[in-house]
Design brief:
By secondary structure, the chain is an alpha/beta fold. It has helices at residues 5-8, 12-33, 35-44, 65-70, 104-121, 139-150, 163-173, 182-194, 216-226, 339-347, 384-402; strands at residues 86-89, 99-102, 128-131, 154-156, 177-180, 206-210, 229-236, 241-247, 254-256, 261-266, 280-286, 297-303, 305-306, 318-319, 324-325, 330-332, 335-337, 352-363, 366-375, 407-411, 426-428. The chain has a nine-stranded mixed sheet, with helices on both faces. A four-stranded antiparallel sheet has the order 10-11-12-15. Strand 5 (177-180), helix 8 and strand 6 form a beta-alpha-beta unit. Bound molecules: 5'-O-[hydroxy(phenylacetyl)phosphoryl]adenosine. Residues 90-91, 138-140, 210-213, 232-237, 241-242, 299, 301, 322, 325 line the site of 5'-O-[hydroxy(phenylacetyl)phosphoryl]adenosine (DLL).
Protein backbone atom coordinates (compact mmCIF):
# COMPACT_ATOMS: atom_id res chain seq x y z
CA UNK A 1 0.00 0.00 0.00
CA UNK A 2 1.35 3.42 -0.91
CA UNK A 3 0.68 5.18 2.39
CA UNK A 4 3.74 7.26 3.34
CA UNK A 5 2.90 7.50 7.03
CA UNK A 6 5.95 9.52 8.08
CA UNK A 7 5.04 12.31 5.64
CA UNK A 8 1.27 11.99 5.55
CA UNK A 9 0.81 12.11 9.33
CA UNK A 10 3.57 14.61 10.14
CA UNK A 11 2.86 17.22 12.81
CA UNK A 12 2.46 20.83 11.66
CA UNK A 13 5.73 21.74 13.34
CA UNK A 14 7.65 19.02 11.50
CA UNK A 15 5.98 19.93 8.20
CA UNK A 16 6.87 23.61 8.69
CA UNK A 17 10.50 22.72 9.24
CA UNK A 18 10.50 20.43 6.21
CA UNK A 19 8.85 23.05 4.00
CA UNK A 20 11.20 25.79 5.19
CA UNK A 21 14.24 23.80 4.14
CA UNK A 22 12.71 22.94 0.75
CA UNK A 23 11.52 26.53 0.22
CA UNK A 24 15.03 27.89 0.79
CA UNK A 25 16.38 25.30 -1.60
CA UNK A 26 13.82 26.25 -4.25
CA UNK A 27 14.46 29.99 -3.96
CA UNK A 28 18.19 29.42 -4.28
CA UNK A 29 17.70 26.97 -7.17
CA UNK A 30 15.44 29.41 -9.04
CA UNK A 31 17.87 32.26 -8.43
CA UNK A 32 20.80 30.32 -9.80
CA UNK A 33 19.15 28.58 -12.75
CA UNK A 34 16.35 30.77 -14.12
CA UNK A 35 17.35 34.29 -15.30
CA UNK A 36 13.72 35.37 -15.03
CA UNK A 37 13.80 34.58 -11.31
CA UNK A 38 17.28 36.05 -10.78
CA UNK A 39 15.86 39.38 -11.94
CA UNK A 40 12.56 39.06 -10.06
CA UNK A 41 14.18 38.06 -6.78
CA UNK A 42 16.85 40.76 -7.08
CA UNK A 43 14.17 43.38 -7.68
CA UNK A 44 12.28 42.19 -4.60
CA UNK A 45 15.47 41.88 -2.54
CA UNK A 46 14.69 38.27 -1.64
CA UNK A 47 17.53 35.85 -0.91
CA UNK A 48 17.28 32.34 0.60
CA UNK A 49 18.83 33.69 3.83
CA UNK A 50 15.97 36.16 4.19
CA UNK A 51 13.47 33.28 4.32
CA UNK A 52 13.47 32.54 8.04
CA UNK A 53 10.04 30.93 8.26
CA UNK A 54 7.46 29.57 5.82
CA UNK A 55 5.49 32.79 6.50
CA UNK A 56 8.29 34.73 4.78
CA UNK A 57 7.09 33.28 1.51
CA UNK A 58 4.89 36.38 1.35
CA UNK A 59 7.94 38.48 0.39
CA UNK A 60 8.49 36.45 -2.78
CA UNK A 61 6.96 37.95 -5.94
CA UNK A 62 3.99 36.18 -7.54
CA UNK A 63 4.40 34.26 -10.83
CA UNK A 64 1.58 34.25 -13.39
CA UNK A 65 0.55 32.39 -16.51
CA UNK A 66 1.54 35.50 -18.50
CA UNK A 67 5.11 35.09 -17.20
CA UNK A 68 5.13 31.58 -18.62
CA UNK A 69 3.63 32.74 -21.91
CA UNK A 70 6.13 35.62 -22.19
CA UNK A 71 8.92 33.07 -21.82
CA UNK A 72 7.42 30.55 -24.25
CA UNK A 73 8.39 27.80 -24.75
CA UNK A 74 11.32 26.97 -22.41
CA UNK A 75 12.35 30.32 -20.86
CA UNK A 76 11.41 29.32 -17.31
CA UNK A 77 13.07 25.90 -17.45
CA UNK A 78 15.80 25.54 -14.86
CA UNK A 79 17.60 22.76 -16.70
CA UNK A 80 18.88 22.38 -20.27
CA UNK A 81 16.86 20.12 -22.55
CA UNK A 82 19.37 17.28 -22.24
CA UNK A 83 18.28 16.98 -18.58
CA UNK A 84 14.58 17.11 -19.45
CA UNK A 85 12.89 13.76 -19.83
CA UNK A 86 9.36 14.84 -20.76
CA UNK A 87 7.55 17.91 -22.04
CA UNK A 88 3.83 18.64 -21.57
CA UNK A 89 1.69 21.67 -22.32
CA UNK A 90 -1.45 23.11 -20.81
CA UNK A 91 -4.83 22.49 -22.29
CA UNK A 92 -5.71 26.20 -22.51
CA UNK A 93 -7.79 27.17 -25.52
CA UNK A 94 -6.58 30.73 -26.07
CA UNK A 95 -3.11 32.01 -26.98
CA UNK A 96 0.10 30.03 -26.72
CA UNK A 97 0.02 27.04 -24.40
CA UNK A 98 2.12 27.00 -21.26
CA UNK A 99 4.91 24.48 -21.61
CA UNK A 100 6.39 22.43 -18.78
CA UNK A 101 9.40 20.12 -18.59
CA UNK A 102 10.20 17.26 -16.20
CA UNK A 103 13.57 15.86 -15.22
CA UNK A 104 13.89 12.20 -14.31
CA UNK A 105 13.50 13.07 -10.62
CA UNK A 106 10.39 15.15 -11.41
CA UNK A 107 8.76 12.19 -13.16
CA UNK A 108 9.52 9.97 -10.13
CA UNK A 109 8.15 12.54 -7.69
CA UNK A 110 5.07 13.01 -9.84
CA UNK A 111 4.34 9.27 -9.75
CA UNK A 112 4.76 9.31 -5.94
CA UNK A 113 2.34 12.22 -5.55
CA UNK A 114 -0.31 10.50 -7.66
CA UNK A 115 0.28 7.10 -6.04
CA UNK A 116 -0.32 8.65 -2.62
CA UNK A 117 -3.55 10.32 -3.67
CA UNK A 118 -5.07 7.35 -5.52
CA UNK A 119 -4.20 5.19 -2.50
CA UNK A 120 -6.04 7.63 -0.24
CA UNK A 121 -8.97 7.33 -2.66
CA UNK A 122 -8.99 3.56 -2.20
CA UNK A 123 -7.18 2.30 -5.33
CA UNK A 124 -4.99 -0.80 -4.81
CA UNK A 125 -2.88 -3.27 -6.78
CA UNK A 126 -6.05 -5.35 -7.25
CA UNK A 127 -7.63 -2.65 -9.40
CA UNK A 128 -8.00 -2.77 -13.17
CA UNK A 129 -8.00 0.89 -14.11
CA UNK A 130 -9.14 2.37 -17.37
CA UNK A 131 -7.66 5.77 -18.16
CA UNK A 132 -10.15 7.74 -20.22
CA UNK A 133 -8.28 11.04 -20.23
CA UNK A 134 -6.72 12.00 -23.56
CA UNK A 135 -3.09 10.86 -23.82
CA UNK A 136 -0.90 13.55 -25.34
CA UNK A 137 0.24 16.97 -24.19
CA UNK A 138 -2.42 16.95 -21.44
CA UNK A 139 -0.90 15.85 -18.13
CA UNK A 140 -3.97 13.97 -16.87
CA UNK A 141 -3.51 10.63 -18.61
CA UNK A 142 0.23 10.05 -18.18
CA UNK A 143 0.16 11.51 -14.67
CA UNK A 144 -2.46 9.04 -13.45
CA UNK A 145 -0.88 6.30 -15.54
CA UNK A 146 2.50 6.43 -13.79
CA UNK A 147 0.98 6.83 -10.32
CA UNK A 148 -1.37 3.88 -10.78
CA UNK A 149 1.42 1.71 -12.18
CA UNK A 150 3.44 2.62 -9.12
CA UNK A 151 0.82 1.15 -6.78
CA UNK A 152 0.74 -1.98 -8.93
CA UNK A 153 -2.71 -1.52 -10.51
CA UNK A 154 -3.35 -2.98 -13.99
CA UNK A 155 -3.57 0.11 -16.19
CA UNK A 156 -5.54 0.23 -19.45
CA UNK A 157 -4.40 3.29 -21.41
CA UNK A 158 -7.45 3.50 -23.63
CA UNK A 159 -7.57 7.35 -23.76
CA UNK A 160 -10.71 9.40 -24.46
CA UNK A 161 -13.07 9.17 -27.44
CA UNK A 162 -14.45 6.03 -29.07
CA UNK A 163 -16.84 5.57 -26.18
CA UNK A 164 -18.38 2.32 -27.40
CA UNK A 165 -15.02 0.60 -27.54
CA UNK A 166 -14.15 2.01 -24.12
CA UNK A 167 -17.36 0.49 -22.77
CA UNK A 168 -16.56 -2.84 -24.42
CA UNK A 169 -13.15 -2.95 -22.67
CA UNK A 170 -14.85 -2.04 -19.42
CA UNK A 171 -17.23 -5.00 -19.70
CA UNK A 172 -14.75 -7.50 -21.12
CA UNK A 173 -11.77 -6.65 -18.88
CA UNK A 174 -13.83 -6.30 -15.70
CA UNK A 175 -12.54 -2.75 -15.18
CA UNK A 176 -12.88 -1.76 -11.51
CA UNK A 177 -11.75 1.88 -11.59
CA UNK A 178 -12.31 4.66 -14.09
CA UNK A 179 -10.16 7.75 -14.62
CA UNK A 180 -11.99 10.52 -16.51
CA UNK A 181 -13.39 14.00 -16.31
CA UNK A 182 -16.72 13.92 -14.47
CA UNK A 183 -18.52 15.16 -17.59
CA UNK A 184 -17.08 12.31 -19.65
CA UNK A 185 -17.93 9.77 -16.94
CA UNK A 186 -21.54 10.98 -17.11
CA UNK A 187 -21.60 10.82 -20.89
CA UNK A 188 -20.14 7.30 -20.81
CA UNK A 189 -22.92 6.29 -18.44
CA UNK A 190 -25.56 7.79 -20.74
CA UNK A 191 -24.09 5.85 -23.67
CA UNK A 192 -23.83 2.62 -21.66
CA UNK A 193 -27.51 2.82 -20.78
CA UNK A 194 -28.47 3.10 -24.46
CA UNK A 195 -26.60 -0.07 -25.35
CA UNK A 196 -28.12 -3.56 -25.28
CA UNK A 197 -25.95 -4.58 -22.30
CA UNK A 198 -27.27 -4.45 -18.74
CA UNK A 199 -25.41 -2.19 -16.32
CA UNK A 200 -24.68 -5.33 -14.28
CA UNK A 201 -22.13 -6.24 -17.00
CA UNK A 202 -19.92 -3.48 -15.58
CA UNK A 203 -17.75 -3.92 -12.53
CA UNK A 204 -16.77 -0.31 -11.71
CA UNK A 205 -16.23 0.41 -8.02
CA UNK A 206 -14.10 3.54 -8.00
CA UNK A 207 -14.06 6.73 -10.05
CA UNK A 208 -10.89 8.83 -9.95
CA UNK A 209 -12.26 12.00 -11.45
CA UNK A 210 -10.79 15.43 -11.87
CA UNK A 211 -9.39 18.11 -14.12
CA UNK A 212 -12.67 20.01 -13.94
CA UNK A 213 -15.18 20.89 -11.26
CA UNK A 214 -18.06 18.66 -10.32
CA UNK A 215 -20.91 19.59 -8.02
CA UNK A 216 -22.10 17.14 -5.33
CA UNK A 217 -25.31 16.72 -7.33
CA UNK A 218 -23.45 15.73 -10.49
CA UNK A 219 -21.18 13.44 -8.55
CA UNK A 220 -24.10 11.60 -7.03
CA UNK A 221 -25.68 11.25 -10.48
CA UNK A 222 -22.46 9.61 -11.77
CA UNK A 223 -22.21 7.40 -8.68
CA UNK A 224 -25.80 6.25 -8.99
CA UNK A 225 -25.45 5.60 -12.73
CA UNK A 226 -22.30 3.50 -12.42
CA UNK A 227 -22.70 2.22 -8.87
CA UNK A 228 -19.22 3.48 -7.94
CA UNK A 229 -17.51 5.64 -5.31
CA UNK A 230 -16.10 8.83 -6.83
CA UNK A 231 -13.22 10.99 -5.63
CA UNK A 232 -12.10 14.41 -6.80
CA UNK A 233 -8.53 15.00 -7.93
CA UNK A 234 -6.96 18.39 -8.44
CA UNK A 235 -3.86 19.53 -10.26
CA UNK A 236 -2.50 21.76 -12.95
CA UNK A 237 0.07 21.23 -15.71
CA UNK A 238 2.19 24.19 -14.62
CA UNK A 239 2.54 22.71 -11.13
CA UNK A 240 3.02 19.13 -12.31
CA UNK A 241 -0.38 17.81 -13.47
CA UNK A 242 -2.68 15.62 -11.36
CA UNK A 243 -1.23 14.73 -7.96
CA UNK A 244 -1.31 18.16 -6.33
CA UNK A 245 -4.27 17.27 -4.11
CA UNK A 246 -7.06 14.71 -3.94
CA UNK A 247 -9.79 13.27 -1.79
CA UNK A 248 -9.50 10.30 0.54
CA UNK A 249 -12.44 8.02 1.39
CA UNK A 250 -13.75 10.60 3.89
CA UNK A 251 -14.23 13.09 1.05
CA UNK A 252 -13.88 16.01 3.40
CA UNK A 253 -11.52 18.16 1.36
CA UNK A 254 -8.63 17.38 -0.98
CA UNK A 255 -5.36 16.37 0.73
CA UNK A 256 -2.52 18.55 -0.46
CA UNK A 257 0.87 16.97 -1.09
CA UNK A 258 2.46 19.49 1.23
CA UNK A 259 5.97 18.13 1.06
CA UNK A 260 5.92 18.97 -2.66
CA UNK A 261 3.81 22.14 -2.69
CA UNK A 262 3.08 25.10 -0.40
CA UNK A 263 -0.46 26.42 -0.88
CA UNK A 264 -1.57 29.96 0.02
CA UNK A 265 -4.85 31.83 -0.43
CA UNK A 266 -4.97 35.40 -1.70
CA UNK A 267 -7.62 37.94 -2.57
CA UNK A 268 -7.76 37.84 -6.41
CA UNK A 269 -8.05 41.58 -6.75
CA UNK A 270 -5.63 42.94 -4.14
CA UNK A 271 -3.32 39.87 -4.13
CA UNK A 272 -3.21 40.22 -0.31
CA UNK A 273 -2.84 37.00 1.65
CA UNK A 274 -6.04 35.88 3.34
CA UNK A 275 -6.28 34.31 6.77
CA UNK A 276 -6.72 30.64 7.41
CA UNK A 277 -10.21 29.45 6.52
CA UNK A 278 -10.99 32.33 4.12
CA UNK A 279 -12.00 31.64 0.54
CA UNK A 280 -9.89 33.10 -2.24
CA UNK A 281 -7.47 32.31 -5.03
CA UNK A 282 -4.98 29.51 -4.59
CA UNK A 283 -1.27 30.29 -5.02
CA UNK A 284 1.17 27.40 -5.09
CA UNK A 285 4.95 27.18 -4.69
CA UNK A 286 6.66 24.00 -5.85
CA UNK A 287 9.24 22.56 -3.43
CA UNK A 288 11.05 19.80 -5.29
CA UNK A 289 10.68 20.54 -8.97
CA UNK A 290 13.83 20.67 -11.06
CA UNK A 291 12.52 21.10 -14.62
CA UNK A 292 10.36 24.14 -14.06
CA UNK A 293 10.14 25.25 -10.42
CA UNK A 294 7.50 27.92 -9.75
CA UNK A 295 7.34 30.45 -6.94
CA UNK A 296 3.89 31.55 -5.75
CA UNK A 297 2.13 30.60 -8.94
CA UNK A 298 -1.37 32.04 -9.42
CA UNK A 299 -3.70 29.17 -10.20
CA UNK A 300 -6.81 31.36 -10.61
CA UNK A 301 -8.72 28.61 -8.81
CA UNK A 302 -10.99 29.64 -5.95
CA UNK A 303 -10.87 27.51 -2.82
CA UNK A 304 -10.19 27.48 0.94
CA UNK A 305 -7.64 25.70 3.13
CA UNK A 306 -8.33 23.65 6.24
CA UNK A 307 -5.44 22.73 8.55
CA UNK A 308 -7.45 20.43 10.85
CA UNK A 309 -6.32 16.78 10.71
CA UNK A 310 -8.63 14.56 8.69
CA UNK A 311 -10.68 11.65 10.11
CA UNK A 312 -8.62 9.35 7.86
CA UNK A 313 -5.56 10.06 10.03
CA UNK A 314 -3.70 12.25 7.54
CA UNK A 315 -2.61 15.53 9.06
CA UNK A 316 -1.71 17.68 6.04
CA UNK A 317 -3.69 20.67 4.87
CA UNK A 318 -6.82 20.03 2.81
CA UNK A 319 -8.36 22.30 0.20
CA UNK A 320 -12.07 22.60 -0.48
CA UNK A 321 -13.35 21.46 -3.83
CA UNK A 322 -12.58 24.19 -6.35
CA UNK A 323 -15.46 26.64 -6.35
CA UNK A 324 -14.63 28.04 -9.77
CA UNK A 325 -11.91 30.00 -11.49
CA UNK A 326 -11.47 33.69 -10.86
CA UNK A 327 -11.22 34.12 -14.63
CA UNK A 328 -14.15 31.96 -15.76
CA UNK A 329 -16.28 33.42 -13.07
CA UNK A 330 -18.94 35.27 -15.02
CA UNK A 331 -19.77 38.80 -14.01
CA UNK A 332 -23.38 39.33 -14.94
CA UNK A 333 -24.91 42.69 -14.11
CA UNK A 334 -22.27 43.09 -11.42
CA UNK A 335 -22.95 39.73 -9.82
CA UNK A 336 -20.28 37.02 -9.64
CA UNK A 337 -21.67 33.84 -11.13
CA UNK A 338 -19.86 30.52 -10.96
CA UNK A 339 -20.95 27.82 -13.40
CA UNK A 340 -20.87 25.36 -10.47
CA UNK A 341 -23.77 27.23 -8.82
CA UNK A 342 -25.85 26.78 -11.96
CA UNK A 343 -24.79 23.16 -12.25
CA UNK A 344 -26.06 22.40 -8.75
CA UNK A 345 -29.56 23.58 -9.76
CA UNK A 346 -29.55 21.70 -13.05
CA UNK A 347 -28.27 18.40 -11.77
CA UNK A 348 -30.62 18.57 -8.80
CA UNK A 349 -33.66 18.55 -11.13
CA UNK A 350 -34.73 15.08 -12.21
CA UNK A 351 -36.53 16.15 -15.37
CA UNK A 352 -33.39 17.51 -16.99
CA UNK A 353 -30.03 15.89 -17.75
CA UNK A 354 -26.59 16.88 -16.47
CA UNK A 355 -25.47 18.61 -19.66
CA UNK A 356 -25.91 22.34 -19.97
CA UNK A 357 -24.58 25.41 -21.73
CA UNK A 358 -24.38 29.00 -20.52
CA UNK A 359 -24.71 31.74 -23.13
CA UNK A 360 -23.95 35.33 -22.14
CA UNK A 361 -25.02 38.18 -24.40
CA UNK A 362 -25.07 41.94 -24.20
CA UNK A 363 -28.66 43.18 -24.53
CA UNK A 364 -28.71 46.97 -24.66
CA UNK A 365 -26.75 48.07 -21.60
CA UNK A 366 -27.23 44.81 -19.77
CA UNK A 367 -25.68 41.36 -19.74
CA UNK A 368 -28.16 38.57 -20.24
CA UNK A 369 -27.58 34.97 -19.25
CA UNK A 370 -29.29 32.11 -21.03
CA UNK A 371 -29.09 28.65 -19.48
CA UNK A 372 -29.64 25.88 -22.02
CA UNK A 373 -30.63 22.51 -20.60
CA UNK A 374 -31.82 19.19 -22.01
CA UNK A 375 -34.86 17.12 -21.09
CA UNK A 376 -34.36 13.57 -19.92
CA UNK A 377 -37.65 12.49 -21.48
CA UNK A 378 -38.68 14.14 -24.77
CA UNK A 379 -42.37 13.25 -24.30
CA UNK A 380 -42.60 16.19 -21.91
CA UNK A 381 -42.36 18.45 -24.96
CA UNK A 382 -45.88 17.38 -25.91
CA UNK A 383 -47.30 19.18 -22.91
CA UNK A 384 -46.88 22.93 -23.13
CA UNK A 385 -48.13 23.28 -19.57
CA UNK A 386 -45.51 20.87 -18.19
CA UNK A 387 -42.66 22.61 -20.03
CA UNK A 388 -43.85 26.00 -18.86
CA UNK A 389 -44.01 24.75 -15.26
CA UNK A 390 -40.51 23.25 -15.47
CA UNK A 391 -39.16 26.46 -17.00
CA UNK A 392 -40.66 28.57 -14.20
CA UNK A 393 -39.30 26.18 -11.57
CA UNK A 394 -35.76 26.36 -13.02
CA UNK A 395 -35.91 30.15 -13.32
CA UNK A 396 -37.01 30.35 -9.70
CA UNK A 397 -34.27 27.96 -8.48
CA UNK A 398 -31.60 29.81 -10.44
CA UNK A 399 -32.78 33.15 -9.11
CA UNK A 400 -32.67 31.82 -5.57
CA UNK A 401 -29.07 30.68 -5.91
CA UNK A 402 -27.64 33.42 -8.17
CA UNK A 403 -29.66 36.46 -7.19
CA UNK A 404 -30.15 37.42 -10.85
CA UNK A 405 -32.81 36.46 -13.35
CA UNK A 406 -31.86 34.41 -16.38
CA UNK A 407 -33.54 32.92 -19.41
CA UNK A 408 -33.94 29.15 -19.45
CA UNK A 409 -34.18 27.21 -22.73
CA UNK A 410 -35.34 23.63 -22.45
CA UNK A 411 -34.11 21.51 -25.34
CA UNK A 412 -34.72 17.98 -26.58
CA UNK A 413 -32.51 15.26 -25.10
CA UNK A 414 -28.95 15.09 -26.53
CA UNK A 415 -29.04 18.39 -28.43
CA UNK A 416 -26.03 19.96 -26.74
CA UNK A 417 -22.46 19.06 -27.62
CA UNK A 418 -20.81 16.28 -25.55
CA UNK A 419 -17.18 16.42 -24.43
CA UNK A 420 -14.69 13.63 -23.92
CA UNK A 421 -12.27 15.88 -22.02
CA UNK A 422 -12.96 19.03 -20.06
CA UNK A 423 -16.45 20.31 -20.81
CA UNK A 424 -16.68 23.81 -22.38
CA UNK A 425 -19.89 25.10 -20.86
CA UNK A 426 -19.64 28.85 -21.37
CA UNK A 427 -20.33 30.71 -24.62
CA UNK A 428 -19.60 34.38 -23.98
CA UNK A 429 -20.91 36.50 -26.86
CA UNK A 430 -20.11 39.87 -25.24
CA UNK A 431 -17.31 41.77 -27.02
O1 LIG B 1 -6.33 19.42 -15.42
C1 LIG B 1 -4.44 18.41 -14.34
C2 LIG B 1 -5.29 17.31 -13.86
C3 LIG B 1 -5.51 16.21 -14.65
C4 LIG B 1 -5.87 17.33 -12.60
C5 LIG B 1 -6.28 15.18 -14.22
C6 LIG B 1 -6.64 16.28 -12.14
C7 LIG B 1 -6.85 15.19 -12.94
P1 LIG B 1 -4.63 21.57 -16.64
O2 LIG B 1 -5.14 21.00 -17.91
O3 LIG B 1 -3.43 22.43 -16.67
O4 LIG B 1 -4.28 20.42 -15.64
O5 LIG B 1 -5.82 22.37 -15.97
C8 LIG B 1 -5.69 22.94 -14.71
O6 LIG B 1 -8.07 22.63 -14.36
O7 LIG B 1 -6.35 25.29 -12.73
C9 LIG B 1 -8.46 24.06 -12.54
O8 LIG B 1 -9.06 25.23 -13.01
C10 LIG B 1 -8.98 22.86 -13.31
N1 LIG B 1 -9.05 21.69 -12.44
C11 LIG B 1 -8.18 20.69 -12.33
N2 LIG B 1 -8.61 19.77 -11.44
C12 LIG B 1 -9.80 20.23 -10.95
C13 LIG B 1 -10.74 19.77 -10.00
C14 LIG B 1 -5.15 19.45 -15.18
N3 LIG B 1 -10.60 18.61 -9.36
C15 LIG B 1 -6.99 23.58 -14.30
N4 LIG B 1 -11.81 20.54 -9.75
C16 LIG B 1 -6.98 24.04 -12.87
C17 LIG B 1 -11.99 21.72 -10.39
C18 LIG B 1 -10.07 21.47 -11.59
N5 LIG B 1 -11.16 22.19 -11.31
Amino acid sequence: MFFQKDIETMSRKEMDAYQLERLRWTVDYCYRNVPFYTKRLDEAGVTPEKIKSVEDIKHIPITTKEDLRDNYPFGLFAQPLNKIERIHASSGTTGKPTVVGYTKADIDHWADCVARIVTAAGATSDDVVQISFGYGMFTGALGLHYGLEKIGAAVIPNSSGNTEKTLMYMRDFGTTALVATPSYALYMCETAKEQPFPMSDYNLKLGLFGSEGCTPEMRSEIEKGWGLFATDNYGMSELMGPGVSGECRERDGLHFNEDYFIPEIINSESCERLSEGETGELLVTTLCKEGIPLLRYRTRDITRLNYEPCRCGRTGVRMDKVKGRSDDMLKIRGVNVFPSQIESVIVGNEQIGGNYQLVVRREGFYDALEVKVELVDSSLLESYGAIEKLNKQLQHDLYTILGIRCKVSILEPKTLERFVGKAQRIVDLRD
